[in-house]
Each structure stands twice: as structure tokens, then as C-alpha cells.
Amino acid sequence: MSAPARRLAELRVAAMLLTRLPVGRLAGHVPTLAAARWAYPLVGAGVGVVMWAVCAGAAELGLPPGISALLAVAAGVLATGGLHEDGLADLADGFGGGRDRARKLEIMRDSRIGSYGVLALAIVLGLKVQAMAGVAGSAPPLGPFVALAAGSRFAMLAVLEALPPARADGLGHAAGETGGWRPWAGLAVALAVMLPLGGAALGLLAALALAAVAVAVLAKRQIGGQTGDVLGAVQQVSDGAGWLAALLLLGGG
Question: Is the dihedral of CA 216, 220, 222, 224 positive or negative?
């Protein structure tokens, strides 16, 4: 298989992992999750385009910014199957309700959602919708949607690089290979989609980084590393922080 064909296959694996968007079936050699990790930001950029299209379409119909933003967030949830939101809820339940590391990991693997998870989702999604509405206004700009969706997926990749797997199995372990060119390729994609935002890109990067570091430090202290739920929480929290930064830096549309 040629190098371009391998990269395309890796991109499709990343899309299969992070979204519910149809990308067809892979025949022959199937790349590992670790090999596909460079493409997380690229997949995120696609999700950002979907969210922007829904927000812009709703605004064009004359819907208020708050409703347009809520529909955009709903479109993102549908596009990803709520994967990252589920991770945030599981992390909140585990860290909030577990007495020790083993119990926290056990709770995080439970498919049921508890009060900590509900509260975490309500706060993060509520903040995101409100901030997005303030940025989008009546003419939603494409740039922040793509930049933050890609940047928050790079935050996941960065935490994969920085933290060891907390389990001997699961998504965090399967995708947890470190080093090589792949993290740099992911960073290049994230930076490329942020460049059109000009000076505001630095503020958004700072917000994304601070939020990702906060979740990573918490995960290291609570369970000793990363899991798929930790990565989902990183995406949600950094995305929310990015939208708050965008509201402060970019204002209304």
C-alpha cells in the first residue's frame, strides 16, 4: 500500500472511531487506532463544518442565535454519537463518586449515568451553547467552528502523548502509542485551521491548552493516566473553554 493510501486509510479509521459519519468499509490492511491518531484534528475539522452549516442554516431561517447554537451542538452530538459527551459524564461520575483508583475506573466503565455526570454535561454544554450563540450572532463565522473542533481533538492527541494508559485494555490503551511524526502532523492540522483567525488564534490555543492540562493533571492524580473517557472529557472541556475564549476575543457576529 502506498503512503497516500495508508494516510487515507488512517483518516477513515479515525473517522470511524470519532464519528458516526459514513466513510465506507476498509478492505485489506486496516490501520491501528494508534496509527490513525494523527487524523483526530482533521476529523474534528469536518465535524466543525457540519456544526457551522447547521448553525448558519438556522440563522438564515431567522432563528435566534441561542436556538441556532443549540442546534449546532446537537448536530455535533449526532455526528459523533455523543462519544465525547459520554466520556465527560463517565469521568465526572468516576472521579466524583469513586473512593479509590479501582472504584473510579469501575464507575467510569459503567454505562449508567449518575448525578455528577448529568451536572458536568449540563454545565459544559450550557456554557458552550451560550458562548457559541454570542460568537455566532446572526451570521455565524466558519473559522471558530472548525478551529475549535480541530483544536479540541488535537488536545486529545496531546493527552494521549503525555499520559500513560490507566488500564491494560480499552481505547486509551489501544490508541496510546507515543512518539514519531503523528503528533506533529496533528499539531500542523490544528494550527493550519486556526491561522485564519489571526491574533485570536493565540488566545484560543491558550484556552484549549489550559483546559486540556487541567483535565490531564486531574486524571493523573485520580487514576494514574488516561482512558477513552478521559480523552472524551478533554475534548469537551477544552472545546468549551475555547468557545468561552472565542466569545471574549471575537465577540458577536
Answer: positive
Q: Smallest Cα–Cα separation from 228: which of 125, 86, 122, 103?
A: 86
User: Alpha-carbon dihedral of residues 85, 87, 89, 92, nearest 10 degrees?
Assistant: -140
Contact of 152 with 238, CB cutoff 8 Å: yes
Q: Render 113-161 in DSSP notation, one character per residue.
A: --HHHHHHHHHHHHHHHHHHHHHHTTS--HHHHHHHHHHHHHHHHHHHH
- Residue 170 has what pLDDT? 62
DSSP-assigned letter for residue 34: T
pTM assigned to the model = 0.93
Number of domains in the chain: 1
Quick one: cell of 244?
468561552
- CA-CA-CA-CA torsion sign (250, 210, 155, 66): negative
- C-alpha distances (whole Å) from 72 to each of 19, 32, 75, 121, 194 are 15, 31, 5, 16, 20
SS3 content of the chain, % helix, strand, coil (to 5): 75, 0, 25
**Which SS3 state, helix, strand or coil, does residue 29 take?**
coil
Tens of pLDDT, residue by residue over 125-181, are 999 999 999 999 888 999 999 999 999 999 999 999 999 998 777 665 565 566 788
Tell me, what's the pLDDT at 29?
77
- Tell whether the model's pLDDT for residue 192 goes beyond 80: yes
Residue 149 structural domain: 3-250
